[in-house]
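Project outcomes to date are best conveyed with an example. Our students and postdoctoral researchers have been running inverse folding experiments weekly, and each run begins with a structure described purely in tokens. The record below, which covers 331 residues, was selected by the lab manager from last quarter's runs and is presented without edits.
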């Protein structure tokens, strides 16, 4: 399976993340799955006129490839011309290159939330760059390729969203495609692969006991749950970050940082500071997925009244103050 990779309006962080793939060396694993790069701007030897000729041959159908991966937002400005972002040496907008290559691809992958939904570039005041995703403009269908776009294999754009994406999300999706195939039923309503998007960041969070008893952190060094006061959206964000650890060891929450829901459309413009929790009458605005407000209020009150002393005291410290009690099993 041959992969062609382009970089558009972004920071290149998803490529950097991909290079941190574990536990096997990235290229060994891809090679064993029958996956190779036709071209990648950061990894391939071809550059300049040689790279442009290769891309043109791909766009004209003279060089076969299977998957078009695009990283970074689509910059359509000014006035829809795309001239804010020209492919170096070609004089043509990158958006034009993407449209041409997408017509030849069997599958099109949006790598990262910028490419999926527009990301930070689309949420600057007034969006002067006219930035968008490949098939979404924030959470609205459309984007550069349009809501009705289907690749040659019949699928919409596969949105491997995240900022940056976990390397495993990219590699596993490519390997699933190469070995088993990929169907519309493998994607959620926003085009994200279910292999990571059917989970919530909340799952396997090390702070779940504090969440259950609503024993909340009040400052960033505290061990308690970060949802009530410090902006954590792990109960709303679709990703497996605490099940599939980053670099084999960590996640945002394990590092003491609130989940900012970077796999969701519009995460970059929440309307408040990332690590603050907006509230109305003391109730967080962003409640857990699928939980009615009345249930949350009732359960939160009950949970707080039943909070063990150990959990309550540990929640407000930067280390364990009270250890779990010793008790013989079965008694």
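After processing, the design step wrote out the following sequence:
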């Amino acid at each position: 399976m041959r992969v062609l990779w382009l970089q558009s309006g972004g920071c290149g962080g998803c490529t950097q993340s991909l290079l941190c793939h574990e536990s096997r060396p990235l290229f060994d694993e891809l090679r064993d799955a029958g996956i190779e790069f036709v071209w990648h701007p950061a990894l391939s030897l071809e550059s300049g006129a040689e790279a442009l000729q290769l891309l043109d041959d791909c766009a004209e159908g003279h060089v076969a490839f299977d998957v078009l991966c695009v990283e970074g937002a689509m910059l359509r400005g000014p006035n829809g011309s795309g001239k804010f972002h020209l492919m170096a040496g070609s004089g043509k907008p990158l958006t034009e290159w993407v449209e041409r290559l997408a017509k030849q691809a069997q599958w099109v992958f949006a790598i990262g939330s910028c490419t999926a939904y527009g990301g930070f570039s689309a949420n600057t005041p007034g969006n002067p760059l006219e930035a968008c995703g490949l098939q979404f403009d924030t959470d609205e269908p459309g984007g550069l390729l349009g809501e009705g776009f289907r690749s040659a294999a019949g699928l919409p754009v596969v949105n491997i969203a995240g900022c940056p994406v976990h390397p495993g999300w990219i590699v596993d999706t490519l390997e699933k495609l190469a070995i088993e195939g990929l169907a519309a039923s493998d994607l959620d309503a926003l085009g994200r692969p279910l292999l990571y998007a059917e989970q919530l960041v909340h799952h396997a969070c090390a702070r779940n006991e504090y969440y259950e008893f609503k024993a909340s952190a009040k400052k960033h060094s505290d061990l308690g749950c970060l949802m009530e006061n410090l902006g954590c959206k792990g109960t709303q964000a679709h990703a497996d970050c605490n099940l599939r650890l980053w670099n084999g060891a960590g996640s945002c929450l394990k590092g003491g940082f609130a989940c900012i829901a970077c796999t969701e459309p519009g995460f970059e413009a929440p309307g408040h500071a990332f690590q603050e929790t907006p509230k109305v009458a003391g109730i967080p605005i962003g409640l857990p997925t699928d939980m009615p407000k009345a249930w949350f209020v009732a359960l939160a009150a009950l949970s707080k009244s039943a909070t063990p002393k150990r959990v309550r005291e540990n929640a407000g410290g930067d280390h364990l103050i009270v250890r779990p009690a010793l008790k013989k099993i079965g008694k």
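The two ends are 58 Å apart (CA to CA). Residues 199-331 form a domain with the Cytochrome-c3 Hydrogenase; Chain A, domain 2 fold (CATH 4.10.480.10). The training component of this project remains on track.
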